[in-house]
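job 3f2a | input accepted
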Amino acid sequence: MEEVDKILIHSLRQTGTEVNDDIQSVKQFTSELIVEAVVRCVRVIDPALGSGISPSLPPGMSARFRVGMVLAQACQDLGYKGEIGYQTFLYSNEPEIRSLLMFLVEKLPRESAESSDQPAGKSVVLQRAIAAQIKAQLALPWLPPNCRLPLLCKTQNSGPPHSFHAQPLSLPYSTEDPGKTHLKEVKDYRRNLLPPVTAQPSHHASVAASLLEQHAVELSASQEWESEWNSQGLLSRLTPEEYRSRKRARLHKRIEEQLRTAAQAQPDGAPRSSSDLSELLQSFRGSAPSDGILSKGTHFTHSQKFNFTQEPEKAVQQMAAAASSLSSGHQSEEDVQACQQEELTSLQDQLQQLSLHIGQLTGDMKQMTVTITQVSDELKQRDLGNEEKDESVQVKKQTIDLLPDAENNLAKLQGLVEASAKRVVNLASQWEKHRAPLIDEHRRLKELCSNRDMESSRKLSEIKDLHDKIRQSAEEAKKKEALYKQLITEIENLPKDVSRSAYTLRILEIVGNIKKQKEEITKILSDTKQLQKEINNLTGKLDRTFAVTDELVFKDAKKDESVRKSYKYLAALHENCTQLIQTIEDTGTIMREIRDLEEQIETENSNKTVANLEKILDDYKAIRQENSALAAKIREG
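job 3f2a | predicted structure (637 res):
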Protein backbone atom coordinates (compact mmCIF):
# COMPACT_ATOMS: atom_id res chain seq x y z
CA MET A 1 0.00 0.00 0.00
CA GLU A 2 2.96 2.33 0.37
CA GLU A 3 3.36 2.79 -3.39
CA VAL A 4 -0.40 3.35 -3.80
CA ASP A 5 -0.42 5.96 -1.03
CA LYS A 6 2.56 7.77 -2.61
CA ILE A 7 0.77 7.92 -5.96
CA LEU A 8 -2.39 9.22 -4.27
CA ILE A 9 -0.47 11.88 -2.34
CA HIS A 10 1.34 13.00 -5.51
CA SER A 11 -1.97 13.31 -7.40
CA LEU A 12 -3.55 15.25 -4.53
CA ARG A 13 -0.65 17.70 -4.50
CA GLN A 14 -1.15 18.28 -8.23
CA THR A 15 -4.79 19.25 -7.59
CA GLY A 16 -3.70 21.93 -5.10
CA THR A 17 -4.01 20.06 -1.78
CA GLU A 18 -1.39 21.12 0.74
CA VAL A 19 0.03 17.77 1.91
CA ASN A 20 3.10 18.08 4.11
CA ASP A 21 6.28 16.24 3.21
CA ASP A 22 6.24 14.21 6.43
CA ILE A 23 2.92 12.56 5.45
CA GLN A 24 3.73 9.34 3.59
CA SER A 25 0.51 7.32 4.01
CA VAL A 26 -3.26 7.76 3.97
CA LYS A 27 -3.25 6.57 7.57
CA GLN A 28 -1.68 9.89 8.60
CA PHE A 29 -4.47 11.98 7.02
CA THR A 30 -6.48 14.14 9.41
CA SER A 31 -10.14 15.04 8.98
CA GLU A 32 -9.23 18.54 7.77
CA LEU A 33 -6.79 17.17 5.18
CA ILE A 34 -9.32 14.57 3.99
CA VAL A 35 -12.00 17.22 3.51
CA GLU A 36 -9.58 19.52 1.65
CA ALA A 37 -8.36 16.70 -0.63
CA VAL A 38 -11.89 15.57 -1.49
CA VAL A 39 -13.08 19.14 -2.17
CA ARG A 40 -10.07 19.87 -4.44
CA CYS A 41 -10.67 16.69 -6.43
CA VAL A 42 -14.41 17.40 -6.76
CA ARG A 43 -13.67 20.93 -8.02
CA VAL A 44 -11.29 19.60 -10.67
CA ILE A 45 -13.74 16.87 -11.77
CA ASP A 46 -16.90 19.03 -11.71
CA PRO A 47 -16.32 22.75 -10.96
CA ALA A 48 -20.06 23.48 -10.79
CA LEU A 49 -20.54 20.77 -8.14
CA GLY A 50 -17.56 21.71 -5.97
CA SER A 51 -17.66 25.51 -6.27
CA GLY A 52 -20.04 25.94 -3.32
CA ILE A 53 -18.16 23.62 -0.92
CA SER A 54 -15.53 25.07 1.39
CA PRO A 55 -12.22 23.11 1.56
CA SER A 56 -11.79 23.86 5.27
CA LEU A 57 -13.81 22.46 8.15
CA PRO A 58 -15.72 25.07 10.18
CA PRO A 59 -15.21 25.20 13.95
CA GLY A 60 -18.82 24.38 14.88
CA MET A 61 -19.82 20.71 15.11
CA SER A 62 -23.21 21.15 13.45
CA ALA A 63 -21.52 22.92 10.52
CA ARG A 64 -18.98 20.07 10.33
CA PHE A 65 -21.80 17.52 10.07
CA ARG A 66 -23.42 19.56 7.29
CA VAL A 67 -20.14 19.77 5.36
CA GLY A 68 -19.70 16.00 5.72
CA MET A 69 -23.20 15.33 4.41
CA VAL A 70 -22.69 17.72 1.46
CA LEU A 71 -19.39 16.04 0.55
CA ALA A 72 -20.94 12.58 0.80
CA GLN A 73 -23.78 13.64 -1.51
CA ALA A 74 -21.28 15.17 -3.98
CA CYS A 75 -19.25 11.93 -4.10
CA GLN A 76 -22.43 9.92 -4.69
CA ASP A 77 -23.38 12.31 -7.52
CA LEU A 78 -20.00 11.62 -9.12
CA GLY A 79 -20.78 7.88 -9.11
CA TYR A 80 -19.15 6.51 -5.96
CA LYS A 81 -20.86 3.20 -5.07
CA GLY A 82 -19.29 2.52 -1.67
CA GLU A 83 -20.72 3.30 1.72
CA ILE A 84 -20.15 6.97 2.49
CA GLY A 85 -21.50 9.49 4.96
CA TYR A 86 -20.41 12.26 7.28
CA GLN A 87 -18.60 9.67 9.43
CA THR A 88 -16.28 8.91 6.50
CA PHE A 89 -14.77 12.40 6.78
CA LEU A 90 -15.14 13.20 10.48
CA TYR A 91 -14.17 9.74 11.84
CA SER A 92 -11.70 8.59 9.22
CA ASN A 93 -11.33 4.94 8.26
CA GLU A 94 -8.15 4.11 6.34
CA PRO A 95 -9.60 1.56 3.83
CA GLU A 96 -12.66 3.70 3.11
CA ILE A 97 -10.59 6.86 2.67
CA ARG A 98 -8.12 5.05 0.42
CA SER A 99 -10.88 3.62 -1.80
CA LEU A 100 -12.61 7.04 -1.96
CA LEU A 101 -9.39 8.85 -2.90
CA MET A 102 -8.56 6.20 -5.52
CA PHE A 103 -12.01 6.70 -7.04
CA LEU A 104 -11.59 10.49 -7.15
CA VAL A 105 -8.06 10.31 -8.60
CA GLU A 106 -9.28 7.96 -11.33
CA LYS A 107 -12.10 10.43 -12.09
CA LEU A 108 -9.69 13.34 -12.60
CA PRO A 109 -9.60 14.70 -16.19
CA ARG A 110 -6.94 13.37 -18.51
CA GLU A 111 -5.33 16.80 -18.86
CA SER A 112 -4.83 16.96 -15.12
CA ALA A 113 -3.43 13.44 -15.10
CA GLU A 114 -1.04 14.23 -17.94
CA SER A 115 0.06 17.45 -16.29
CA SER A 116 0.56 15.59 -13.00
CA ASP A 117 2.91 13.15 -14.77
CA GLN A 118 5.07 16.01 -15.99
CA PRO A 119 7.74 17.39 -13.67
CA ALA A 120 6.91 20.75 -12.19
CA GLY A 121 9.56 23.46 -11.89
CA LYS A 122 9.71 26.16 -9.25
CA SER A 123 7.79 28.69 -11.34
CA VAL A 124 5.02 26.18 -12.17
CA VAL A 125 4.71 25.14 -8.53
CA LEU A 126 4.55 28.80 -7.48
CA GLN A 127 1.85 29.57 -10.07
CA ARG A 128 -0.21 26.57 -8.97
CA ALA A 129 0.12 27.58 -5.33
CA ILE A 130 -0.99 31.14 -6.16
CA ALA A 131 -3.97 29.82 -8.17
CA ALA A 132 -4.95 27.45 -5.36
CA GLN A 133 -4.74 30.26 -2.80
CA ILE A 134 -6.85 32.58 -4.95
CA LYS A 135 -9.45 29.86 -5.50
CA ALA A 136 -9.56 29.14 -1.79
CA GLN A 137 -10.08 32.81 -0.96
CA LEU A 138 -12.76 33.18 -3.65
CA ALA A 139 -14.60 30.13 -2.33
CA LEU A 140 -14.95 31.67 1.14
CA PRO A 141 -18.00 33.92 1.62
CA TRP A 142 -17.35 37.56 2.44
CA LEU A 143 -18.32 38.66 5.91
CA PRO A 144 -18.08 42.02 7.70
CA PRO A 145 -14.96 42.38 9.87
CA ASN A 146 -17.00 42.21 13.10
CA CYS A 147 -18.53 38.83 12.14
CA ARG A 148 -15.33 37.10 10.98
CA LEU A 149 -13.89 34.06 12.69
CA PRO A 150 -10.12 33.75 13.22
CA LEU A 151 -9.82 31.57 10.11
CA LEU A 152 -11.54 34.18 7.91
CA CYS A 153 -9.42 36.98 9.39
CA LYS A 154 -6.34 35.25 8.01
CA THR A 155 -7.70 34.88 4.49
CA GLN A 156 -9.75 38.07 4.12
CA ASN A 157 -7.90 41.35 4.48
CA SER A 158 -9.56 43.90 6.72
CA GLY A 159 -7.69 46.84 5.18
CA PRO A 160 -9.43 49.56 3.13
CA PRO A 161 -10.24 48.60 -0.50
CA HIS A 162 -8.75 50.58 -3.41
CA SER A 163 -10.66 51.76 -6.46
CA PHE A 164 -9.60 50.61 -9.93
CA HIS A 165 -7.75 53.71 -11.16
CA ALA A 166 -5.52 53.22 -14.20
CA GLN A 167 -2.86 55.68 -15.36
CA PRO A 168 -0.90 55.75 -18.64
CA LEU A 169 2.49 54.02 -18.52
CA SER A 170 5.63 54.70 -20.54
CA LEU A 171 7.22 51.44 -21.66
CA PRO A 172 10.71 51.02 -23.15
CA TYR A 173 9.32 49.42 -26.30
CA SER A 174 6.79 50.30 -28.97
CA THR A 175 3.69 48.14 -29.27
CA GLU A 176 2.42 49.80 -32.45
CA ASP A 177 5.58 49.29 -34.53
CA PRO A 178 8.04 46.92 -32.81
CA GLY A 179 10.55 47.00 -35.68
CA LYS A 180 10.82 50.81 -35.76
CA THR A 181 14.25 52.26 -35.03
CA HIS A 182 14.41 55.08 -32.50
CA LEU A 183 16.79 57.99 -32.05
CA LYS A 184 19.83 57.72 -29.82
CA GLU A 185 18.43 60.35 -27.46
CA VAL A 186 15.22 58.37 -27.01
CA LYS A 187 17.18 55.20 -26.29
CA ASP A 188 19.37 57.05 -23.78
CA TYR A 189 16.30 58.50 -22.07
CA ARG A 190 14.64 55.12 -21.79
CA ARG A 191 17.83 53.49 -20.53
CA ASN A 192 18.98 56.14 -18.06
CA LEU A 193 16.09 58.44 -17.08
CA LEU A 194 12.83 56.50 -17.57
CA PRO A 195 11.55 55.40 -14.11
CA PRO A 196 10.40 51.81 -13.60
CA VAL A 197 6.77 50.90 -14.16
CA THR A 198 6.07 50.55 -10.44
CA ALA A 199 7.22 54.17 -9.84
CA GLN A 200 5.32 55.86 -12.69
CA PRO A 201 1.76 55.92 -11.19
CA SER A 202 1.06 58.60 -8.61
CA HIS A 203 -0.23 56.03 -6.10
CA HIS A 204 1.21 52.58 -5.46
CA ALA A 205 -2.32 51.09 -5.43
CA SER A 206 -2.74 52.08 -9.12
CA VAL A 207 0.20 49.93 -10.32
CA ALA A 208 -1.82 46.74 -10.78
CA ALA A 209 -4.74 48.59 -12.42
CA SER A 210 -2.37 50.44 -14.79
CA LEU A 211 -0.60 47.22 -15.78
CA LEU A 212 -3.90 45.45 -16.42
CA GLU A 213 -5.17 48.40 -18.49
CA GLN A 214 -1.92 48.56 -20.51
CA HIS A 215 -2.01 44.83 -21.13
CA ALA A 216 -5.68 44.96 -22.20
CA VAL A 217 -4.96 47.84 -24.61
CA GLU A 218 -1.98 46.03 -26.17
CA LEU A 219 -3.92 42.78 -26.43
CA SER A 220 -6.95 44.45 -28.08
CA ALA A 221 -4.67 46.33 -30.52
CA SER A 222 -2.88 43.11 -31.44
CA GLN A 223 -6.17 41.28 -31.98
CA GLU A 224 -7.59 44.15 -34.08
CA TRP A 225 -4.46 44.24 -36.24
CA GLU A 226 -4.52 40.47 -36.70
CA SER A 227 -8.20 40.44 -37.68
CA GLU A 228 -7.72 43.43 -40.03
CA TRP A 229 -4.67 41.82 -41.64
CA ASN A 230 -6.47 38.48 -42.10
CA SER A 231 -9.59 40.15 -43.54
CA GLN A 232 -8.15 43.05 -45.61
CA GLY A 233 -4.35 42.94 -45.52
CA LEU A 234 -4.02 39.58 -47.27
CA LEU A 235 -6.41 40.70 -50.01
CA SER A 236 -4.26 43.76 -50.75
CA ARG A 237 -1.26 41.51 -51.71
CA LEU A 238 1.07 43.85 -49.78
CA THR A 239 3.60 43.32 -47.04
CA PRO A 240 2.62 44.42 -43.51
CA GLU A 241 4.98 47.44 -43.71
CA GLU A 242 3.57 48.56 -47.06
CA TYR A 243 0.00 48.07 -45.80
CA ARG A 244 0.73 50.19 -42.69
CA SER A 245 2.38 52.95 -44.75
CA ARG A 246 -0.53 53.07 -47.21
CA LYS A 247 -3.03 53.18 -44.37
CA ARG A 248 -1.07 55.99 -42.71
CA ALA A 249 -0.97 57.97 -46.00
CA ARG A 250 -4.74 57.59 -46.41
CA LEU A 251 -5.28 58.79 -42.86
CA HIS A 252 -3.08 61.87 -43.43
CA LYS A 253 -4.96 62.64 -46.65
CA ARG A 254 -8.33 62.41 -44.91
CA ILE A 255 -7.12 64.68 -42.09
CA GLU A 256 -5.87 67.24 -44.60
CA GLU A 257 -9.20 67.17 -46.48
CA GLN A 258 -11.12 67.62 -43.24
CA LEU A 259 -8.91 70.57 -42.28
CA ARG A 260 -9.40 72.18 -45.68
CA THR A 261 -13.16 71.70 -45.43
CA ALA A 262 -13.25 73.19 -41.93
CA ALA A 263 -11.01 76.08 -42.95
CA GLN A 264 -13.25 77.09 -45.86
CA ALA A 265 -16.32 77.80 -43.68
CA GLN A 266 -16.81 80.89 -41.47
CA PRO A 267 -19.49 81.48 -38.82
CA ASP A 268 -21.29 84.09 -40.96
CA GLY A 269 -21.26 81.84 -44.02
CA ALA A 270 -18.88 84.05 -46.09
CA PRO A 271 -15.97 82.25 -47.72
CA ARG A 272 -12.46 82.92 -46.50
CA SER A 273 -9.90 84.59 -48.66
CA SER A 274 -6.97 82.69 -50.09
CA SER A 275 -4.53 84.46 -47.78
CA ASP A 276 -6.51 83.37 -44.67
CA LEU A 277 -6.58 79.77 -45.90
CA SER A 278 -2.85 79.77 -46.58
CA GLU A 279 -2.20 81.22 -43.11
CA LEU A 280 -4.43 78.54 -41.54
CA LEU A 281 -2.66 75.75 -43.42
CA GLN A 282 0.70 77.24 -42.52
CA SER A 283 -0.32 77.26 -38.84
CA PHE A 284 -1.36 73.59 -39.08
CA ARG A 285 1.97 72.78 -40.67
CA GLY A 286 3.70 74.32 -37.67
CA SER A 287 5.13 77.50 -39.27
CA ALA A 288 3.65 80.97 -39.61
CA PRO A 289 3.39 82.61 -43.03
CA SER A 290 6.48 84.60 -43.96
CA ASP A 291 6.34 88.33 -44.38
CA GLY A 292 8.05 88.12 -47.74
CA ILE A 293 4.97 86.58 -49.40
CA LEU A 294 2.79 89.29 -50.91
CA SER A 295 -0.91 88.71 -50.30
CA LYS A 296 -3.42 89.68 -52.92
CA GLY A 297 -5.68 92.63 -52.06
CA THR A 298 -7.99 95.25 -53.59
CA HIS A 299 -7.38 98.94 -54.21
CA PHE A 300 -9.58 99.80 -51.21
CA THR A 301 -7.49 97.64 -48.83
CA HIS A 302 -4.26 99.24 -50.07
CA SER A 303 -5.70 102.75 -49.63
CA GLN A 304 -7.00 102.01 -46.14
CA LYS A 305 -3.69 100.44 -45.19
CA PHE A 306 -1.90 103.58 -46.48
CA ASN A 307 -4.25 105.88 -44.52
CA PHE A 308 -3.85 103.85 -41.31
CA THR A 309 -0.08 103.98 -41.65
CA GLN A 310 -0.04 107.71 -42.44
CA GLU A 311 -2.37 108.87 -39.63
CA PRO A 312 -0.14 107.68 -36.75
CA GLU A 313 2.83 109.37 -38.41
CA LYS A 314 0.92 112.69 -38.49
CA ALA A 315 -0.16 112.23 -34.90
CA VAL A 316 3.42 111.60 -33.86
CA GLN A 317 4.58 114.74 -35.69
CA GLN A 318 1.88 116.81 -33.99
CA MET A 319 2.83 115.44 -30.60
CA ALA A 320 6.50 116.21 -31.26
CA ALA A 321 5.63 119.79 -32.29
CA ALA A 322 3.46 120.27 -29.23
CA ALA A 323 6.22 118.95 -27.02
CA SER A 324 8.79 121.28 -28.56
CA SER A 325 6.46 124.27 -28.17
CA LEU A 326 5.80 123.38 -24.58
CA SER A 327 9.46 123.02 -23.79
CA SER A 328 10.34 126.31 -25.52
CA GLY A 329 7.58 128.34 -23.88
CA HIS A 330 8.31 127.04 -20.33
CA GLN A 331 4.61 126.45 -19.68
CA SER A 332 3.33 125.03 -16.47
CA GLU A 333 2.56 121.38 -15.85
CA GLU A 334 -1.21 121.98 -15.78
CA ASP A 335 -1.13 123.55 -19.23
CA VAL A 336 0.85 120.55 -20.52
CA GLN A 337 -1.72 118.12 -19.14
CA ALA A 338 -4.60 120.15 -20.58
CA CYS A 339 -2.95 120.14 -24.02
CA GLN A 340 -2.38 116.42 -23.84
CA GLN A 341 -6.00 115.82 -22.82
CA GLU A 342 -7.21 117.94 -25.77
CA GLU A 343 -4.94 116.02 -28.16
CA LEU A 344 -6.16 112.69 -26.72
CA THR A 345 -9.80 113.76 -27.14
CA SER A 346 -9.18 114.84 -30.73
CA LEU A 347 -7.42 111.56 -31.50
CA GLN A 348 -10.29 109.56 -29.98
CA ASP A 349 -12.79 111.53 -32.08
CA GLN A 350 -10.73 110.79 -35.18
CA LEU A 351 -10.59 107.11 -34.22
CA GLN A 352 -14.39 106.95 -33.79
CA GLN A 353 -14.91 108.67 -37.13
CA LEU A 354 -12.52 106.22 -38.81
CA SER A 355 -14.31 103.26 -37.16
CA LEU A 356 -17.69 104.53 -38.38
CA HIS A 357 -16.23 105.11 -41.81
CA ILE A 358 -14.78 101.56 -41.86
CA GLY A 359 -18.14 100.12 -40.77
CA GLN A 360 -19.95 101.99 -43.53
CA LEU A 361 -17.38 100.86 -46.09
CA THR A 362 -17.70 97.25 -44.87
CA GLY A 363 -21.48 97.37 -45.29
CA ASP A 364 -21.06 98.91 -48.74
CA MET A 365 -18.59 96.16 -49.64
CA LYS A 366 -21.04 93.45 -48.59
CA GLN A 367 -23.82 95.10 -50.62
CA MET A 368 -21.52 95.48 -53.60
CA THR A 369 -20.41 91.84 -53.29
CA VAL A 370 -24.05 90.68 -53.29
CA THR A 371 -24.81 92.97 -56.24
CA ILE A 372 -21.77 91.70 -58.17
CA THR A 373 -22.84 88.11 -57.54
CA GLN A 374 -26.36 88.81 -58.76
CA VAL A 375 -25.06 90.61 -61.85
CA SER A 376 -22.68 87.72 -62.60
CA ASP A 377 -25.55 85.22 -62.40
CA GLU A 378 -27.68 87.38 -64.70
CA LEU A 379 -24.80 87.67 -67.19
CA LYS A 380 -24.35 83.88 -67.22
CA GLN A 381 -28.06 83.34 -67.80
CA ARG A 382 -28.13 85.93 -70.61
CA ASP A 383 -25.04 84.31 -72.23
CA LEU A 384 -26.79 80.94 -72.19
CA GLY A 385 -29.94 82.48 -73.68
CA ASN A 386 -27.88 84.23 -76.38
CA GLU A 387 -26.17 80.95 -77.33
CA GLU A 388 -29.54 79.21 -77.70
CA LYS A 389 -30.89 82.07 -79.78
CA ASP A 390 -27.75 82.03 -81.98
CA GLU A 391 -28.25 78.34 -82.67
CA SER A 392 -31.93 78.83 -83.56
CA VAL A 393 -31.00 81.79 -85.79
CA GLN A 394 -28.43 79.67 -87.64
CA VAL A 395 -30.99 76.91 -88.21
CA LYS A 396 -33.59 79.38 -89.46
CA LYS A 397 -31.03 81.09 -91.72
CA GLN A 398 -30.07 77.78 -93.33
CA THR A 399 -33.75 76.95 -93.76
CA ILE A 400 -34.44 80.33 -95.43
CA ASP A 401 -31.46 79.84 -97.77
CA LEU A 402 -32.89 76.50 -98.91
CA LEU A 403 -36.45 77.79 -99.55
CA PRO A 404 -35.94 79.16 -103.16
CA ASP A 405 -35.03 75.67 -104.53
CA ALA A 406 -37.16 73.59 -102.13
CA GLU A 407 -37.92 70.62 -104.45
CA ASN A 408 -34.30 69.96 -105.39
CA ASN A 409 -33.20 70.45 -101.83
CA LEU A 410 -35.87 68.00 -100.61
CA ALA A 411 -34.73 65.45 -103.19
CA LYS A 412 -31.13 65.92 -102.13
CA LEU A 413 -32.16 65.62 -98.49
CA GLN A 414 -34.11 62.45 -99.26
CA GLY A 415 -31.09 61.01 -101.04
CA LEU A 416 -28.87 61.86 -98.10
CA VAL A 417 -31.33 60.22 -95.72
CA GLU A 418 -31.46 57.03 -97.86
CA ALA A 419 -27.66 56.96 -98.17
CA SER A 420 -27.35 57.42 -94.41
CA ALA A 421 -29.82 54.57 -93.85
CA LYS A 422 -27.87 52.28 -96.23
CA ARG A 423 -24.65 53.25 -94.53
CA VAL A 424 -26.20 52.50 -91.11
CA VAL A 425 -27.39 49.09 -92.34
CA ASN A 426 -23.94 48.36 -93.78
CA LEU A 427 -22.28 49.42 -90.56
CA ALA A 428 -24.71 47.28 -88.58
CA SER A 429 -23.86 44.20 -90.67
CA GLN A 430 -20.14 44.91 -90.27
CA TRP A 431 -20.62 45.40 -86.56
CA GLU A 432 -22.43 42.05 -86.31
CA LYS A 433 -19.48 40.38 -88.03
CA HIS A 434 -17.08 41.90 -85.53
CA ARG A 435 -19.47 41.58 -82.58
CA ALA A 436 -19.77 37.78 -82.53
CA PRO A 437 -16.02 37.06 -82.07
CA LEU A 438 -15.76 39.95 -79.62
CA ILE A 439 -18.61 38.52 -77.52
CA ASP A 440 -16.97 35.09 -77.58
CA GLU A 441 -13.68 36.63 -76.59
CA HIS A 442 -15.42 38.60 -73.82
CA ARG A 443 -17.11 35.48 -72.50
CA ARG A 444 -13.84 33.54 -72.64
CA LEU A 445 -11.99 36.31 -70.80
CA LYS A 446 -14.80 36.64 -68.26
CA GLU A 447 -14.71 32.90 -67.60
CA LEU A 448 -10.92 33.03 -67.33
CA CYS A 449 -11.20 35.93 -64.90
CA SER A 450 -13.77 34.09 -62.78
CA ASN A 451 -11.51 31.03 -62.74
CA ARG A 452 -8.61 33.19 -61.65
CA ASP A 453 -10.76 34.75 -58.94
CA MET A 454 -11.76 31.32 -57.71
CA GLU A 455 -8.15 30.18 -57.80
CA SER A 456 -7.01 33.30 -55.95
CA SER A 457 -9.74 32.89 -53.32
CA ARG A 458 -8.75 29.24 -52.90
CA LYS A 459 -5.11 30.19 -52.54
CA LEU A 460 -6.09 32.94 -50.14
CA SER A 461 -8.01 30.45 -48.00
CA GLU A 462 -5.02 28.12 -48.12
CA ILE A 463 -2.79 31.01 -47.05
CA LYS A 464 -5.12 31.74 -44.13
CA ASP A 465 -5.06 28.07 -43.15
CA LEU A 466 -1.29 28.10 -43.38
CA HIS A 467 -1.18 31.21 -41.19
CA ASP A 468 -3.39 29.47 -38.64
CA LYS A 469 -1.21 26.36 -38.75
CA ILE A 470 1.92 28.49 -38.42
CA ARG A 471 0.43 30.28 -35.42
CA GLN A 472 -0.58 26.98 -33.83
CA SER A 473 2.84 25.51 -34.56
CA ALA A 474 4.50 28.57 -33.04
CA GLU A 475 2.36 28.25 -29.91
CA GLU A 476 3.15 24.54 -29.66
CA ALA A 477 6.81 25.29 -30.18
CA LYS A 478 6.71 27.86 -27.38
CA LYS A 479 5.00 25.37 -25.07
CA LYS A 480 7.51 22.67 -25.93
CA GLU A 481 10.37 25.12 -25.48
CA ALA A 482 9.04 26.07 -22.05
CA LEU A 483 8.60 22.40 -21.17
CA TYR A 484 12.13 21.71 -22.42
CA LYS A 485 13.56 24.48 -20.23
CA GLN A 486 11.50 23.21 -17.31
CA LEU A 487 12.80 19.68 -17.81
CA ILE A 488 16.37 20.98 -18.09
CA THR A 489 15.87 22.85 -14.80
CA GLU A 490 14.45 19.72 -13.19
CA ILE A 491 17.38 17.65 -14.43
CA GLU A 492 19.83 20.20 -13.08
CA ASN A 493 18.06 20.28 -9.72
CA LEU A 494 17.93 16.49 -9.39
CA PRO A 495 20.55 14.95 -7.07
CA LYS A 496 23.55 13.68 -9.00
CA ASP A 497 24.16 10.61 -6.82
CA VAL A 498 20.85 8.97 -7.82
CA SER A 499 20.95 7.19 -11.15
CA ARG A 500 18.17 5.93 -13.33
CA SER A 501 19.31 2.35 -12.89
CA ALA A 502 18.34 2.51 -9.20
CA TYR A 503 14.74 3.40 -10.07
CA THR A 504 14.74 0.76 -12.81
CA LEU A 505 15.98 -1.90 -10.39
CA ARG A 506 13.36 -0.88 -7.87
CA ILE A 507 10.61 -1.14 -10.47
CA LEU A 508 11.91 -4.52 -11.57
CA GLU A 509 11.98 -5.71 -7.96
CA ILE A 510 8.36 -4.62 -7.51
CA VAL A 511 7.38 -6.42 -10.72
CA GLY A 512 9.30 -9.53 -9.59
CA ASN A 513 7.56 -9.50 -6.21
CA ILE A 514 4.18 -9.21 -7.92
CA LYS A 515 5.06 -12.16 -10.19
CA LYS A 516 6.16 -14.23 -7.19
CA GLN A 517 2.94 -13.42 -5.37
CA LYS A 518 0.93 -14.41 -8.45
CA GLU A 519 2.87 -17.69 -8.72
CA GLU A 520 2.33 -18.48 -5.02
CA ILE A 521 -1.38 -17.70 -5.31
CA THR A 522 -1.63 -19.91 -8.41
CA LYS A 523 0.27 -22.71 -6.61
CA ILE A 524 -1.98 -22.49 -3.55
CA LEU A 525 -5.09 -22.60 -5.75
CA SER A 526 -3.78 -25.65 -7.62
CA ASP A 527 -2.89 -27.42 -4.35
CA THR A 528 -6.33 -26.64 -3.00
CA LYS A 529 -7.96 -28.07 -6.12
CA GLN A 530 -5.74 -31.14 -5.92
CA LEU A 531 -6.58 -31.76 -2.25
CA GLN A 532 -10.28 -31.28 -2.94
CA LYS A 533 -10.04 -33.78 -5.77
CA GLU A 534 -8.24 -36.33 -3.54
CA ILE A 535 -10.80 -35.81 -0.77
CA ASN A 536 -13.63 -36.40 -3.24
CA ASN A 537 -11.93 -39.56 -4.57
CA LEU A 538 -11.29 -40.98 -1.09
CA THR A 539 -14.85 -40.18 0.00
CA GLY A 540 -16.27 -41.97 -3.04
CA LYS A 541 -13.93 -44.91 -2.56
CA LEU A 542 -14.89 -45.15 1.12
CA ASP A 543 -18.59 -45.11 0.29
CA ARG A 544 -18.20 -47.79 -2.35
CA THR A 545 -16.03 -49.99 -0.11
CA PHE A 546 -18.48 -49.72 2.78
CA ALA A 547 -21.41 -50.57 0.49
CA VAL A 548 -19.69 -53.71 -0.85
CA THR A 549 -18.47 -54.80 2.61
CA ASP A 550 -21.88 -54.15 4.13
CA GLU A 551 -23.57 -56.27 1.49
CA LEU A 552 -21.17 -59.20 1.88
CA VAL A 553 -21.19 -59.17 5.70
CA PHE A 554 -24.98 -58.77 5.79
CA LYS A 555 -25.42 -61.96 3.68
CA ASP A 556 -23.16 -64.01 6.01
CA ALA A 557 -24.70 -62.46 9.17
CA LYS A 558 -27.99 -64.24 8.47
CA LYS A 559 -26.29 -67.64 8.78
CA ASP A 560 -23.51 -67.17 11.38
CA GLU A 561 -23.78 -65.51 14.80
CA SER A 562 -20.11 -64.36 14.89
CA VAL A 563 -20.51 -62.68 11.56
CA ARG A 564 -23.55 -60.88 12.91
CA LYS A 565 -21.36 -59.36 15.66
CA SER A 566 -18.80 -58.34 13.02
CA TYR A 567 -21.55 -56.57 11.08
CA LYS A 568 -22.49 -54.60 14.22
CA TYR A 569 -18.81 -53.66 14.75
CA LEU A 570 -18.58 -52.61 11.08
CA ALA A 571 -21.62 -50.36 11.38
CA ALA A 572 -20.20 -48.80 14.56
CA LEU A 573 -16.81 -48.26 12.89
CA HIS A 574 -18.43 -46.58 9.88
CA GLU A 575 -20.44 -44.30 12.15
CA ASN A 576 -17.35 -43.37 14.22
CA CYS A 577 -15.35 -42.62 11.07
CA THR A 578 -18.17 -40.42 9.77
CA GLN A 579 -18.25 -38.54 13.05
CA LEU A 580 -14.47 -38.18 12.96
CA ILE A 581 -14.57 -36.73 9.42
CA GLN A 582 -17.38 -34.37 10.42
CA THR A 583 -15.34 -33.27 13.46
CA ILE A 584 -12.31 -32.58 11.25
CA GLU A 585 -14.47 -30.52 8.86
CA ASP A 586 -15.98 -28.59 11.78
CA THR A 587 -12.48 -27.96 13.13
CA GLY A 588 -11.40 -26.51 9.73
CA THR A 589 -14.49 -24.34 9.60
CA ILE A 590 -13.81 -23.09 13.13
CA MET A 591 -10.19 -22.32 12.23
CA ARG A 592 -11.32 -20.32 9.20
CA GLU A 593 -13.79 -18.42 11.33
CA ILE A 594 -11.03 -17.76 13.87
CA ARG A 595 -8.81 -16.35 11.11
CA ASP A 596 -11.68 -14.22 9.80
CA LEU A 597 -12.36 -12.91 13.29
CA GLU A 598 -8.66 -12.14 13.77
CA GLU A 599 -8.65 -10.22 10.48
CA GLN A 600 -11.77 -8.35 11.55
CA ILE A 601 -10.10 -7.55 14.88
CA GLU A 602 -7.07 -6.21 13.01
CA THR A 603 -9.33 -4.22 10.72
CA GLU A 604 -11.23 -2.76 13.65
CA ASN A 605 -7.95 -1.94 15.36
CA SER A 606 -6.77 -0.18 12.17
CA ASN A 607 -10.10 1.67 12.01
CA LYS A 608 -9.27 3.35 15.33
CA THR A 609 -12.65 2.42 16.73
CA VAL A 610 -11.77 3.38 20.30
CA ALA A 611 -10.29 6.70 19.21
CA ASN A 612 -13.33 7.36 17.00
CA LEU A 613 -15.67 6.56 19.89
CA GLU A 614 -13.77 8.97 22.14
CA LYS A 615 -13.91 11.57 19.39
CA ILE A 616 -17.66 10.99 18.96
CA LEU A 617 -18.15 11.46 22.70
CA ASP A 618 -16.17 14.71 22.60
CA ASP A 619 -18.19 15.90 19.60
CA TYR A 620 -21.40 14.95 21.40
CA LYS A 621 -20.33 16.99 24.40
CA ALA A 622 -19.43 19.93 22.12
CA ILE A 623 -22.85 19.73 20.44
CA ARG A 624 -24.57 19.70 23.84
CA GLN A 625 -22.57 22.75 24.88
CA GLU A 626 -23.53 24.52 21.64
CA ASN A 627 -27.18 23.61 22.16
CA SER A 628 -27.10 24.85 25.75
CA ALA A 629 -25.42 28.09 24.66
CA LEU A 630 -28.05 28.61 21.92
CA ALA A 631 -30.84 27.86 24.40
CA ALA A 632 -29.36 30.40 26.83
CA LYS A 633 -29.22 33.03 24.06
CA ILE A 634 -32.86 32.27 23.16
CA ARG A 635 -33.92 32.69 26.80
CA GLU A 636 -32.02 35.95 27.08
CA GLY A 637 -33.57 37.18 23.85
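job 3f2a | The two ends are 55 Å apart (CA to CA).
job 3f2a | closed
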